[in-house]
Design goal:
- The chain is α/β, with parallel strands linked by helices.
- It has two domains: about 260 residues, Aconitase, domain 3; about 150 residues, Aconitase, domain 3 (2-Layer Sandwich), CATH 3.30.499.10.
- The strands form five sheets. It has a five-stranded parallel sheet with strand order 4-3-2-5-6, with helices on both faces. The chain has a five-stranded parallel sheet with strand order 16-15-14-17-18.
- Strand 2, helix 2 and strand 3 form a beta-alpha-beta unit.
Length: about 425
């Protein structure tokens, strides 16, 4: 069996499962955000049914999209989430601490061999830890909160084998953009994207999370990677050692297998208005940019900020654009501050924002005006995603974003690494 099949078999109490089979699986972690959480259908229906939350220790509520609140409506939604968590006895409530997917990892909920569901499509981020994480709707979440179970159709798995070593200036974001560009935004619909190979195993945990985070942009049910010592060390650092990792069998059957030479990968850019509209950076070099955004659950982790700072050190953001940086969590913010990374970014001219989902989907802290173009390290570039429907969003790695901030237009980060 594949890793995905093994996890679902374990959670369904079965010895073996096959793609297409319907299983009833026990959930290890149920996560809700403020934007699609208790206030949408769930709180009222639980009250009507007279049912308590099945397991408050396995339930997580994160107020991340509307924090810090930009208006009274957003503040009211956050307040509702906060009060519901308190009344329901859910101690795992986090507010203003950063995007949920980063927090789930930092707080030790993204565990190998487990099943996580969340009311956010990028719950698949947990796959970097060998956890089957997937997004669900509020009606499905209601069922989980009552029963602790969910039915799932066992998905087929596509294997992406990234061999070799990434060149300087090329990052995990380029790996996932290339993968999505090749199969298309619906190329993995209700399938699993499993990433293997030396290029993956050499990546730090931060980079791996970037890849699995965007699996849903190809329609995938989740993205998965085999947990290794780097994952175990990460989890030990956050106080988690009690879990049982699973791995794909060597003779596992995949619906499709794609192989890549990482050494040949170039910086990639997803152009408006689709994530699979991917081009080599050389095809869009020189495109004028009004705003650079480095942050979110896709591109705001410590590694991302460190790479950005290394490129911006002793340089300045172009007067022709603005650079906004949002650390992926409060913990990342503190670590980046103590390491002097935030100082370097601020000295270069960056605006340091609170850890939040706000700018990623145009809710606050960096919305775009009509006619503006943004180069972002986030995961989506749909029409109106970051503000005006007349704006345009390009997606890239933090390295490409950083050098583009210096130039005021899309630039090739490899040029900054020439000569060491």
């Amino acid at each position: 069996m594949t890793l995905a099949e093994k996890i679902l078999a374990r959670k369904a109490g079965m010895a073996k499962v096959s793609p297409g089979e319907i299983v009833m699986a026990k959930v290890d972690c149920a996560m809700m955000t403020d934007i699609l959480g208790p206030r949408v259908h769930i709180a009222d229906e639980l009250k009507r049914l007279g049912c308590p939350v099945w397991d408050t220790s396995k339930t997580v509520v994160v107020a991340d999209h509307y924090t810090p609140a930009a208006n009274a409506k957003q503040a009211g939604i956050v307040a509702f989430s906060r009060n519901w968590a308190r009344e329901a006895g859910v101690d795992n409530y986090f507010e203003g601490m950063g995007p949920c997917h980063q927090l789930l990892a930092e707080k030790g909920f993204s565990l190998p061999g487990t099943l996580m569901v969340g009311t956010d499509s990028h719950t698949c981020t947990a796959g970097a830890f060998g956890c089957f994480g997937t997004g669900i709707g509020s009606t499905e979440m209601l069922g989980v909160l009552v029963t602790g179970e969910i039915w799932l159709r066992v998905p087929e798995t596509i294997k992406f084998n990234w061999k070799g070593k990434l060149p300087k200036g090329v990052m995990a974001k380029d790996v996932i953009l290339k993968s999505i560009g090749d199969i298309g935004h619906a190329g993995a619909t209700y399938k699993v994207m499993e990433f293997v190979g030396s290029a993956i195993s050499e990546m730090p945990v931060d980079e791996r999370m970037c890849i699995t985070n965007m699996a849903v942009e190809a329609g995938a049910k989740t993205g998965l990677m085999a947990p290794d010592q780097k994952i175990f060390d990460y989890l030990k650092a956050v106080g988690k050692t009690d879990y049982e990792p699973l791995y794909s069998d060597v003779d596992a059957v995949y619906s499709r297998e794609l192989s890549y030479d990482a050494a040949k990968l170039t910086p990639q850019v997803a152009c408006p208005h689709e994530v699979d509209n991917v081009k080599d950076v050389t095809e869009v070099v020189g495109t004028k940019i009004d705003q650079i955004y480095i942050g979110s659950c896709t591109g705001g982790r410590l590694h991302d900020l460190a790479v950005t700072a290394s490129l911006l050190k002793n340089r300045k953001v172009s007067s022709q654009c603005r650079l906004m940086v949002s650390p992926a969590s409060h913990d990342v913010w503190l670590k980046a501050s103590k390491a002097g990374i935030l100082d370097t970014l601020a000295e270069a001219g960056a605006m340091i924002l609170a850890p939040s989902c706000g700018a990623c989907l145009g809710l606050h802290s960096g919305a775009l005006a009509s006619g503006e173009k943004c180069l972002s390290t986030t995961n989506r570039n749909f029409i109106g995603r970051m503000g005006s429907k007349e704006s345009e969003v390009y997606l890239s790695s933090p390295a490409t974003a950083a050098v583009s901030a210096i130039e005021g237009r899309i630039a090739d980060p490899r040029e900054f690494f020439k000569g060491g």
